[in-house]
Specification:
alpha/beta, binds calcium ion, eight-stranded mixed barrel, 10 strands, binds ligand C2E
Length: 277
């Protein structure tokens, strides 16, 4: 139960004068929300393009707000990052994703990795690797069933990124580069980081069929990743035409509404039971 009642501020206002107040309110609400267990995870399947089988899941946070209902992360993750609340929130996401994955395995579901998004702010914590290790130990999840999704923003601190990724790799946890193609970093780091997978950003995948530039970029990313011994996931796949294109170009996996939107954890077992194509 909530001791302090709801306030009268609307969540999202264009009124600049209320911005600072709004931010504080949101931060305060997010802290309460963590304590009141208002956050939950949805999971979006990642499909192998050859077999049509689910070979991975991405954990995506939602806020079950008592007044507003299910709030998507785009509406609170930026504020959580700015205020630092992303650190305890991210800890919870990591813990919950590992706990849930272990629970699925114990229920007899075929073991598959769950990916967790890591924001730049989390990555700058000194004890992050220790936290990851202790969550794995505490949930007794085999490290090969956890993957971390990072963006190219981590290359802003190359030395720390190299060390962190080396330690992640030593733990046995997988690493994917998220939103690939939208960052500003050079391709330099790709050779030096132990990256298992590139996720091609939805903006390139969106019109691979209608836009020959995007088609060329996506093909080039797939070839480059394979030359570097990395897997490739296409994000935001919505149509059968996109699926055919990606299959023809040898893309490994797809994630998108065509396969399934993100769903609550209790729906995963039934999706896993569906036969591949
Ligand atoms: P993301 O990591 O790129 O996640 C993929 C987003 O694309 C998800 O939005 C997903 O619902 C959406 N999506 C998937 N397939 C399709 C499709 O076919 N079409 C379209 N239009 N969209 C698709 P969502 O869940 O709203 O998450 C948005 C972003 O919020 C994520 O982008 C990620 O950057 C961030 N986020 C979500 N959960 C977490 C978290 O636990 N921690 C952190 N740090 N960030 C998170
Ligand atoms: Ca995978
Ligand atoms: Ca992601
Ligand atoms: Ca992404």
């Amino acid at each position: 139960a909530k001791e302090n009642g709801r306030n009268d501020y609307s969540f999202y206002t264009d009124d600049v004068e209320h911005d600072a107040l709004h931010k504080l309110t949101l931060q305060h609400e997010m802290m309460n929300a963590l304590q009141n267990h208002e956050f939950l995870l949805h999971y979006q399947p990642q499909y192998d393009l050859e077999s049509g089988r689910i070979v991975g899941l991405e954990a995506l946070v939602r806020w079950n707000h008592p007044v507003r209902g299910l709030v998507p992360p785009g509406e609170f993750i930026p504020a959580a990052e700015e205020s630092g609340i992303i650190v305890p929130l991210g800890d919870w996401v990591l813990q919950e994703a590992c706990r849930q994955n272990k629970e699925w395995q114990e229920a007899g579901m075929a073991p598959i990795p769950v990916s967790v998004n890591l924001s730049f702010r989390q990555f700058t914590q000194r004890n992050l690797i220790g936290k990851i290790a202790s969550v794995l130990k505490q949930t007794s999840l085999d490290p090969q069933y956890l993957e971390l999704e990072i963006t190219e923003s981590i290359t802003m601190d190359l030395d720390r990124a190299s060390l962190f990724l080396k330690e992640v790799r030593e733990l046995g946890v997988g690493i994917s580069i998220d939103d690939f193609g939208t960052g500003y970093s050079s391709f330099h780091y790709l050779r030096h980081f132990p990256i298992g997978c590139l996720k091609i950003d939805r903006s390139f995948v969106q019109d691979i069929v209608g836009n020959s530039n995007n088609a060329a970029i996506v093909s080039a990313i797939i070839d480059m990743a394979h030359n570097l011994q990395m897997d490739v996931i296409a994000e935001g796949v919505e149509t059968i035409e996109q699926v055919s294109f990606l299959r023809n170009r040898g893309c490994d996996e797809m994630q998108g509404y065509y396969g399934s939107p993100p769903v609550p954890g209790h729906r995963i077992a039934e999706l896993m039971a569906e036969p591949g194509e």
